[in-house]
Write a structure and sequence with these properties.
- Helix content is about 15%, strand content about 40%.
- The chain is an alpha+beta fold and about 280 residues long.
- The chain folds into three domains: about 20-125, Immunoglobulins (Immunoglobulin-like, Sandwich), CATH 2.60.40; about 130-225, Immunoglobulins (Immunoglobulin-like, Sandwich), CATH 2.60.40.10; about 230-275, no CATH class.
- The strands form six sheets. The protein has a six-stranded mixed β-sheet, with no helix packed on it. Strands 13, 15, 16, 19, 20 and 21 form a six-stranded mixed β-sheet that branches.
- The N and C termini lie far apart (about 135 Å).
- Residues about 1-20, about 260-265 and about 275-278 have low confidence and may be disordered.
Length: about 280
């Protein structure tokens, strides 16, 4: 007790001489997360030593620093959609563009330390949008095909789920399955299509913020591509006979005292043969 009295005896005069700590700026919530189209309260509280009417400024940091509140009024995109109470700012009906780091500055001209500041980070959470889905109308049997699903406007990023004929397709890598689905990129890959893959496909996007959204189902058909063996044999035989006939004609011409020559046309349709006597 005696030691405490001694400390007070020596420290109290120092406090009276030098005064209390100058302007102090704090926030009750340095990291804000709010849903789109709701209000965001950016907390900024201050204490001053002597100043009774400090200057308050808010700035938004990004690629460029822009004023939110300056010289007693809101500026730019925040004009008419924000209010201030003390140094705490409320943004009304926020959207994704409002996400970012906000800087509160309090200037107390009469204090020894005139400037105090604090930063509040704002994240605007956006529910899923209807994703864009790319499903081929027709694909060839036996070919490898990819289906794509995309939603880039949602915060936080979505996870994707694919459905065939309104039944979910598993994202697990099972050796016997003909496909693989990536729930982060939204890509559905088929190794080798078959008739069993015919059906209606749709993709669903979800991120836990609001209800999931799905694209309209699109039908994918599979076309069989069968190689006609008889036709291939007929074409091959015909080409061989034509080549043989040309060779025999050239040999007969040369045996009877004629010289057979050829040249290629400029349009690439050659060669063209012509015969003249020796």
């Amino acid at each position: 007790m005696a030691l405490m009295r001694l400390l007070v005896f020596f420290l109290l005069p120092l406090v009276l001489i030098h005064g209390t700590i100058s302007v102090i700026v704090t926030t009750s919530n340095p990291k804000m997360e709010v849903h789109e189209n709701t209000n965001a309260v950016l907390s900024c509280k201050f204490e001053t030593e002597k100043e009774t009417n400090p200057r308050i400024e808010w700035k938004k940091k990004g690629h460029d620093v822009s004023y939110v509140y300056f010289d007693g009024e809101f500026t730019g995109l925040f004009k008419g959609r924000a209010s201030i109470d003390g140094a705490t700012v409320t943004l009304h009906g926020v959207n994704q563009k409002d996400s970012g780091a906000y800087h509160c500055e309090v200037t107390a001209r009469k204090d020894k330390i005139r400037l105090g500041e604090v930063t509040v980070s704002l994240s605007v959470l956006v529910p899923p949008h209807v994703p864009s889905c790319h499903v081929p109308e027709i694909a060839v049997s036996g070919s490898a095909v990819e289906l794509h699903c995309e939603d880039k406007l949602t915060v936080p990023p979505v996870t994707y789920s694919w459905y065939k004929d309104n039944r979910p397709l598993s994202t697990a890598h099972v050796p016997d399955t003909n496909y693989s689905a990536d729930n982060k990129t939204g890509t559905l890959k088929f190794k080798s299509l078959s008739k069993s893959d015919i059906g209606q496909y749709r993709c669903e996007a979800s991120n836990g913020i609001g209800p999931p959204k799905s694209c309209v189902g699109q039908h994918m058909n599979i076309a069989e591509f069968e190689l006609n063996l008889s036709l291939v044999i007929a074409v091959g035989v015909g080409a061989a006979l034509l080549l043989l006939s040309c060779s025999l004609a050239i040999c007969l011409c040369c045996q009877r005292g004629y010289c057979c020559c050829y040249y290629k046309l400029d349009d690439g349709t050659g060669p063209v043969y012509y015969i003249h006597s020796l």
